[in-house]
Amino acid sequence: MFVRIMIIAAVILFFVLWVRAAVDVYRRGDLNGGQKAAWILLMLIIPFIGLLIYVMIRPSDAQVAKQARR
Question: How far apart are CA 20 and CA 12, in angstroms?
Fold first, then answer.
């Protein structure tokens, strides 16, 4: 029973993180439409690894704001 609850919690956590990353990709102004579609597809095709790569490579909000001011 405990293992089942942990698996369900992990799946829900992953889904929440994936949706948050997808929304973040959609809202980013420094990416064009093709780049946004590529990130979303990458996260759909290889979900865990794609999400992990996006989170690791994604610039911080401060970096994005600094680029927008230029």
Answer: 12
Quote the pTM value. 0.75
- CA 67 – CA 8 distance, rounded (Å): 39
Handedness of CA 61, 65, 66, 68 (dihedral sign): positive
Q: Which amino acid is present at 57? A: I
The backbone region for 45, taken as left when phi is positive above 0, alpha when psi lies in -120 to 50, beta otherwise, is alpha
The tens digit of pLDDT for each residue in 34-66 reads: 999 999 999 989 988 988 898 898 877 777 777
pLDDT digits (tens, 9 = 90+) for 5-38: 999 999 999 999 999 999 999 988 888 999 999 9
